[in-house]
Amino acid sequence: MKQKPIVIGVTGGSASGKTSVSRAIFDQFSGHSLLLLAQDAYYKKSDLPFEQRRKINYDNPLAFDTPLLHDQLEALIEGHAIDRPVYDYKIHNRAEEVVHMEPKDVIIVEGILILADEELRKLMDIKVYVDTDDDIRVIRRIRRDMRERGRSLDDIIDQYLKTVKPSYHQFIEPTKRYADIVVPEGGHNAVAIDLLTTKIRAILAARGLSE
């Protein structure tokens, strides 16, 4: 009988280093089958005009289709494949295509608000909060959004001050209390990554999923 996969939730503020932590886990467990399920893919589809979509607060729990994320994660845990949605940041809307994903031994769920939902938290074996200073995160966000998402500096700063920063303190930072492990400075914290991977190896071994 196939063993239940291990589900790791990695959260933190925008540009906190969640991807670096997730990548560190991938590198440590290359002998296993892994997949990354990004919460960003589950932003709700909107019928609003483009200019109105640009003004949506994307750091609010209401911006996500959390029931769909929950159901698809649960399906993966039960051994079923899913067709994950795709979100297009340039049009601020869900794309038409989907990504087919097969279940794996290790599932990393990454996103700013994955710990805000109790039912989603129940599906996770390990919950990680990446804790990074606000100034560092905003600099990273500016670089990323200008390079990867074609946004202007004024647009990025305006959004950060109006929605990103207030929402972080209202919705995201409070979820730190649900974390099993808090990782300061993201993927640069070698000691925290080592402790995390040691715990993951122990769970995998207990479930007969060792390399």
From TrEMBL:
<dbReference type="InterPro" id="IPR006083">
    <property type="entry name" value="PRK/URK"/>
</dbReference>
<protein>
    <recommendedName>
        <fullName>Uridine kinase</fullName>
        <ecNumber>2.7.1.48</ecNumber>
    </recommendedName>
</protein>
<dbReference type="GO" id="GO:0044206">
    <property type="term" value="P:UMP salvage"/>
</dbReference>
<dbReference type="GO" id="GO:0005737">
    <property type="term" value="C:cytoplasm"/>
</dbReference>
<feature type="binding site">
    <location>
        <begin position="12"/>
        <end position="19"/>
    </location>
    <ligand>
        <name>ATP</name>
    </ligand>
</feature>
<comment type="pathway">
    <text>Pyrimidine metabolism; UMP biosynthesis via salvage pathway; UMP from uridine: step 1/1.</text>
</comment>
<keyword id="KW-0067">ATP-binding</keyword>
<keyword id="KW-0963">Cytoplasm</keyword>
<dbReference type="GO" id="GO:0005524">
    <property type="term" value="F:ATP binding"/>
</dbReference>
<dbReference type="Pfam" id="PF00485">
    <property type="entry name" value="PRK"/>
</dbReference>
<dbReference type="GO" id="GO:0043771">
    <property type="term" value="F:cytidine kinase activity"/>
</dbReference>
<keyword id="KW-0418">Kinase</keyword>
<keyword id="KW-0808">Transferase</keyword>
<dbReference type="InterPro" id="IPR026008">
    <property type="entry name" value="Uridine_kinase"/>
</dbReference>
<keyword id="KW-0547">Nucleotide-binding</keyword>
<comment type="pathway">
    <text>Pyrimidine metabolism; CTP biosynthesis via salvage pathway; CTP from cytidine: step 1/3.</text>
</comment>
<dbReference type="GO" id="GO:0004849">
    <property type="term" value="F:uridine kinase activity"/>
</dbReference>
<dbReference type="InterPro" id="IPR027417">
    <property type="entry name" value="P-loop_NTPase"/>
</dbReference>
<comment type="similarity">
    <text>Belongs to the uridine kinase family.</text>
</comment>
<feature type="domain" description="Phosphoribulokinase/uridine kinase">
    <location>
        <begin position="7"/>
        <end position="191"/>
    </location>
</feature>
<dbReference type="InterPro" id="IPR000764">
    <property type="entry name" value="Uridine_kinase-like"/>
</dbReference>
<dbReference type="GO" id="GO:0044211">
    <property type="term" value="P:CTP salvage"/>
</dbReference>
